[in-house]
Amino acid sequence: MKKVLVINGPNLNLLGTREKDIYGEETLEDIAIKMNTEAIKLNVDLSFIQTNHEGEIIDKIHEAKGRIDTIIINPGAYTHYSIAIRDAIKAVEIPAIELHLSNIHAREEFRSKSVIAPVCVGQICGFGSLGYILALNAAVMI
User: Fold this and answer.
1) pTM for this model (two decimals)
2) How much is the pLDDT for 74?
3) For 51-67, what is the HEC assignment?
4) Longest Cα separation, the chain
5) Which residues carry a binding-site annotation for substrate?
6) Which residues are annotated binding-site positions?
7) What are phi and psi of 27, to 5 degrees?
8) Helices (H), the chain
9) Taking the domains of the chain in order of start, what are their residue ranges?
């Protein structure tokens, strides 16, 4: 059974109420339920977390070494500047998929640069919550 860790970064706990025109009306709990349903179909052991704290994200990545097959990460705003998260992903040598609900390349210029993407096997963005399902399917295939 493949083990997948989904890490959600800052402000994703506000989904459903925050900038609905960009992020939609689904809550993070709604997305977790969809992912758990898909994980059962795919025979995946899924862990799903959210934190607003960079250090906690790094700790979860470190704890995944030797225990998790793939990491799916929506780093939120950390995407654009967290060299520490980037280094953690690179250090543990676990395939990672970067994920965003919105198309970061079609938004403000500062959002189009990801320091995380170069250490990931791929990036999924712009598909809303469907991106989580796409990422989970990709995690199974890599």
Assistant:
1) 0.94
2) 98
3) CCCHHHHHHHHHHHCCC
4) 40
5) 74, 80, 87, 101-102, 111
6) 74, 80, 87, 101-102, 111
7) -90, 165
8) 20-23, 28-42, 54-64, 83-92, 130-141
9) 2-141
